Amino acid sequence: MADSKQIENSFERSVFTEFFTKIEIDNKNVRVRCKLCPPATKQTYSCALNSTANLKKHLQSVHPAAHDKLPTLKRSVTSSNGLPEAVAKKQKTLTSWTSNSVALLSQQHVNDLIMNFVIGDMQAFSVVESPEFIKLVTGLQPGKTVMTRKTLTSR
Ligand SMILES: [Zn+2]
């Protein structure tokens, strides 16, 4: 399942792999062995894949020094706004896509797109004179203009 795979990866990427060896993944839980405890203890711990609170608690009570190191090791398992990393990344991609792409089209490209829209969608040529359409184009591509109906029909 893609979902649990993603959750599994979030453990794999977490700082806790520094201190715990993964033994097995069982459904939505991960069973781990603490690397810091003497091997003789053979004690294993399980925690929910999406919540490493148990492991954190173990470090805090048994290995406070390691627990103190956690913040510096933090590889941003969750983003600052609290969203799972995957979601945050997707949002970031979307945001940067939008901001980077603004005004990247040439006037020629804009013209082509309008032409394509009018011809392909069998719009009336007068659509380029519609204030709402002009607003749409200039809103998406600041600084660009909508070609006039005359230019359009002369093509
Ligand atoms: Zn331990």
Provide a descriptive summary of the structure in words.
The mean pLDDT is 79. Helix content is 50%, strand content 12%. 13% of the residues are buried. It is mainly α and 155 residues long. The protein has helices spanning 2-12, 53-62, 64-73, 85-101, 107-120, 131-140, 149-153; strands spanning 20-26, 29-34, 44-48. It has a 3-stranded antiparallel beta sheet with strand order 1-2-3, covered by helices on one side. The site of zinc ion (ZN) has 6 residues, from helix 2. It holds the Pfam family zf-BED.
Q: N- to C-terminal separation?
A: 52 Å
Order of helices and strands: HEEEHHHHHH
Q: Give the strand content.
A: 5-15%
Number of helices: 7
Strand order of the largest sheet: 1-2-3
Mean pLDDT: 79
> What overall geometry do the principal axes of the alpha carbons give?
rod-shaped
How many strands, which pairing sense, and closed or not: the largest β-sheet? 3 strands, antiparallel
Structural class: mainly alpha
Radius of gyration: 28 Å
Strand segment count: 3
Bound molecules: zinc ion
